[in-house]
Amino acid sequence: MTGLIKRSFSLAQHRTSVALEVEFWRALEVLAQDRSQSLSALVAAIDAERGVDRPLASALRVTTLNAALARAP
Fold it and tell me: Closest Cα to residue 40, out of 16, 58, 23, 62?
């Protein structure tokens, strides 16, 4: 599937939108479920941990990639 899906979140008491590919949203939903978190809680945690030089969309993709690599044999 091509294209980006935009979702909005309240982070640090402000609204923000993030556009990611549907595959990344699916992987983030699985990761949130594995961590017994809502997707919003997971995104907020990633947002709080990312560096100021890394855009939120990039931090979400990198977190997803790292989680997939950790699961790989």
Answer: 16
- Residue numbers of the domain that contains 62: 4-71
Nearest Cα residue to 71 out of 39, 34, 43, 26: 34
Count CB atoms within 10 A of the CB of residue 51.
6
Number of neighbouring beta carbons within 10 Å of residue 58: 11
pTM across the whole model:
0.89
Query: How many domains would you assign to the chain?
Result: 1
* Cα–Cα distance for residue pair 63/67, rounded to 1 Å: 6
- pLDDT (tens, 9 = 90+) of the chain, 73 residues, equals 468 999 999 998 889 999 999 999 999 999 999 999 999 999 999 999 998 999 999 999 999 999 999 988 8
Please give the backbone phi and psi of residue 37, each rounded to the nearest 5 degrees, phi first: -125, 160
